[in-house]
Design brief:
GO terms for molecular function: methyltransferase activity. By secondary structure, this protein is α/β, with parallel strands linked by helices. The protein folds into 2 domains: about 70 residues; about 190 residues, Vaccinia Virus protein VP39 (Rossmann fold). The protein is built from 8 helices and 11 strands. Helix 3 crosses helix 4.
Length: about 280
């Protein structure tokens, strides 16, 4: 028992990947969808009031009259995509969660919205069209490894038309500096987010060099043990600008969040608007 707990409780190597795609796990993906659709919870999506404010601001800086074809990367259940479509964009949403995409398709049908959804890994996306505008919202970019970020940034660049724009947000150094290392555990006798059966969850929060954090949950149940890793790279403004310009983007402006607040070093997020 002691030896079996060591891999669960020790700090994993940088960018260790989860053994299974939990976003498509039958139980976990259901819990994730519930979290996405909770208007007052910020664990998976931001609060709906902020999303409304954000969508309005995006329309102002990249109006659909000029940037009509929009690619929403990591669209989830379509929360932003539907708002974009209602504003006049022609929207394509891409996500690697089958449950989220299925929900988004049905929701768009119910609302009579013409949105094209793709169940696809955006790390390997190869789409048959180019876009005027692309978005990657709620700090998904920083959840990737250094190599995967370059892959995504390059793929977006190649999927934009000349003059096309890319808007994304990341966590800042303020977030990294406030991140607390700790280890906790909990008993979930009636199941919970990670498993429908009873289990014990060992939670580890770790800081790494290069401004990286990890939130790890290791689930131990009657069927075995598995660890889930949620990585985040936190950025300075200069780091983010360099990753964008290295693949050819021009920086239009930097903001404090995805709703256009003024950039400040004490903001927990940074948003950047790029142009091809």
């Amino acid at each position: 028992m002691f030896k079996s707990l060591i891999p669960i409780l020790e700090r994993p190597p940088l960018y260790t990947k989860t053994a299974v795609p939990f976003w498509d796990d039958e139980h976990i993906s259901k819990q994730m969808l519930i979290a996405h659709l909770d208007p007052g919870f910020e664990g998976a999506s931001r609060k709906f009031a902020f999303i409304d404010k954000s969508a309005i601001w995006i329309k102002e800086i990249a109006p659909p009259s000029k940037y009509r074809q929009l690619l929403d990367i990591g669209c989830g259940p379509g929360i932003y995509a539907e708002r974009f479509a209602q504003m006049g964009y022609q929207v394509t949403g891409i996500d690697f969660s089958r449950r989220s995409i299925d929900y988004a398709i049905e929701s768009a049908k119910k609302s009579n919205l013409d949105i094209h959804y793709l169940y696809q890994n955006y790390l390997t996306m190869s789409l048959n069209r180019n876009y005027d505008l692309s978005t990657m919202i709620y700090c998904d970019y920083g959840a990737l490894s250094t190599a995967d970020r370059q892959t995504v940034m390059t793929a977006v660049y190649h999927h934009l038309k000349p003059g096309g724009r890319f808007l994304l947000d990341v966590f800042s150094m303020s977030k990294y500096n406030d991140f607390e290392e700790k280890q906790t555990w909990e008993i979930c006798q009636d199941g919970g987010f990670w498993c429908k059966e009873n289990y014990i969850a060992f939670n580890g929060c770790y800081r790494y060099p290069e401004n990286v954090t990890l939130e790890q949950t290791s689930v131990v149940s009657d069927t075995g043990a598995i660890s889930y890793y949620l990585w985040n790279t936190c950025f300075t403004r200069e780091m983010l600008m360099k990753e964008a310009t290295d693949v050819g983007f021009r920086v239009c402006e930097v903001f404090g969040d995805i709703a256009g607040s003024t950039y400040r070093t004490d903001n927990t997020t940074i948003s950047i608007l790029l142009e091809k």
